Amino acid sequence: MESILLTATTSNLPLPRNSSLSPLSFSSSLPNQVSTKVDIRRTNKGTTKAPRIVASSSGSKGRAGKGVSANVAVDGSVAAVGAEAVKDVSWKELQYEEGSTGHRQPLPADPDTEKQMEYITNILGSNVYDVAIESPLQLAPLLSTQLGVNLWLKREDSQQVFSFKIRGAYNMISRLSEEKLKKGIICASAGNHAQGVALAGQRLKTKAYIVMPTTTPQIKIDAVERLDGIVDLYGNSFDEAQKRAKERSEEEGLTFIPPFDDKDVIAGQGTVGMEIGRQIRGKIHAIFVPIGGGGLASGIVSFYKLVYPDVKVFGVEPNDQNSMAQALYRGEIVNVTDIGHFADGVAVQQVGEETFRICYELLDDVILVKKESISAAIKDMFNDGRNILEPSGALSIAGAKAYCEYNNIKGVNIVAVTSGANMNFDQLGQISDLANIDQSILATMLPETPGSLKQLTDLIADLGVTIAEMTYRFSSGSTDALVVYKVKAVDAALETLVRQLDFFGFKTYTLSDNEVVRNHLRYMMGGRQNVENETLFRFTFPEKVGALKHFLKDFQPNWNVSLFHHRHQGILTSDVLIGVQLEKSEEKKFDEYAKRVGYQYEVISQDDSAHVLAKL
């Protein structure tokens, strides 16, 4: 085995037919390796029991299902799995610092090397280069200088469908029999998987049916249809769309194409790792890979841990879309019922059985990052190369940055896989807002007297702080008003500013960490209101025609809406802030009504700064 591995690492791995690179094309320009002390802060030592692999549909609520259930991704991707129930959890149950590691269960001492060899064989023989290019591996000069490392970007966003997904889809579909290709293929997705399946169907001259929810943005429908995909709009949710796809698969004899939990799909994605190994000859410290269902990470880690076992491979997930991190932490697959939607390309409630098995055995850990860090990574990518990634495509950059900063990593080669660039233009406003991590939101009590606003702004300017945004409205009949504004100051500079304002009699609140304030209330400030019996709710509405009508359909006359703010964010759902005047005796009835409506929601607690701000 050892001699085989040595040969694999030094010989010419097979080049794709359309590659313009030689096996050593990047070695001459690779900066020299600099030795360094690395504080990894790991605790993954020793052995552990085998992982528990169970699965159910996303709506199981912990109950055992019947027959074969489905692994449901928010983007509509589904993978067939077993019928045993899984535990429902919240993303909030597992949170840790950005860039930190050592949170998963210890890596097994004896991974299944036979299956690894099978995967590497399949990766080397994958049929991906009929449709995929060998994506470039590019040094990011500005980010490299900023971090003090050599940050290499594996540009999967440069594929024809602007995503790595074509690799796995084509590899699986190209291996189907002529009989199955004649009948056609089907999947349920409104994301990158849909385009990958459509392109594969077009190249292999088979009908590709893509079931999409009726909430799917037109731009994504058009992208699939341009690739000759046959779109079937069905249902108001992805659960309904995937159910129809499975039914049509059985009734019409169509082959269902899963997004990640399939050996051929994983092998196809694994060619990304094979290419990295061929393109860079210097020692790599770590590779960072975005994780949704785990197909890309499973493919890359299967290749690297056999051929280059010393290279660390980390998955990266948004902190509120942490299905793989939860699974590795608990040692079993779980269903994250309340995942976020900011990075919809990786919004998967439940990872696959095979992808979990591989990641449990081989993946070093999962880095969690916040949406602000993802947005900043998108901005970094734009500044470095004038390219715009989608949030899931920038995950790996955010994870690499957080890891290097948290662990003080310097002078090494880091690779980040930029997995996609199918950006919804409407989301850019939110991303631009979140990317300004050097800014903070403040609220200051301002006396309703002439000259008070000038005094406030003069104090801020005298401290050398720039005001980026300000909202103020005169409050009739009140001695003071509230000013909400953003300043270019964080950490020590922010503390100094707030302390100085308080000293001069301007009571000031720091609100940057409050998502309700950030998304809603800072756009709504006006005169002070004192609304009796008001309860604030944060609802998640689907972005579709009639969503508000459905919410208000059976609204009771004695439930008065006292506040409403909706801001379209360019994703499949919208965050909506609603204030309702409710008598104590009506609270239970409203709760029952909200559950019947079917929109996810939470009550803003009375001591939350958002609630306080709404009443000031």
TrEMBL record:
One of its GO terms (biological process) is L-threonine catabolic process. Residues 54-67 have a biased composition (Low complexity). Pfam families: PALP, Thr_dehydrat_C. Pathway: Amino-acid biosynthesis; L-isoleucine biosynthesis; 2-oxobutanoate from L-threonine: step 1/1. It comes from the Eukaryota. Keywords: Amino-acid biosynthesis, Branched-chain amino acid biosynthesis, Isoleucine biosynthesis, Lyase, Pyridoxal phosphate, Repeat. The keyword Hydrolase does not apply. InterPro entries: ACT-like_dom_sf, Ser/Thr_Dehydratase, Ser/Thr_deHydtase_PyrdxlP-BS, TD_ACT-like, TD_ACT-like_sf, Thr_deHydtase_biosynth, TrpB-like_PALP, TrpB-like_PALP_sf. One of its GO terms (molecular function) is L-serine ammonia-lyase activity. Its EC number is 4.3.1.19. Gene3D superfamilies: 3.40.50.1100, Biosynthetic Threonine Deaminase, Domain 3 (3.40.1020.10). Its cofactor is pyridoxal 5'-phosphate. It catalyses: L-threonine = 2-oxobutanoate + NH4(+). It is an enzyme of class 4 (lyase). Residues 41-67 are annotated as: Disordered. Residues 440-513, 535-606 form the ACT-like domain. Belongs to the serine/threonine dehydratase family. NCBIfam families: ilvA_2Cterm, PRK09224.1. This is Threonine dehydratase. It comes from Cucurbita moschata. The gene is LOC111433136.
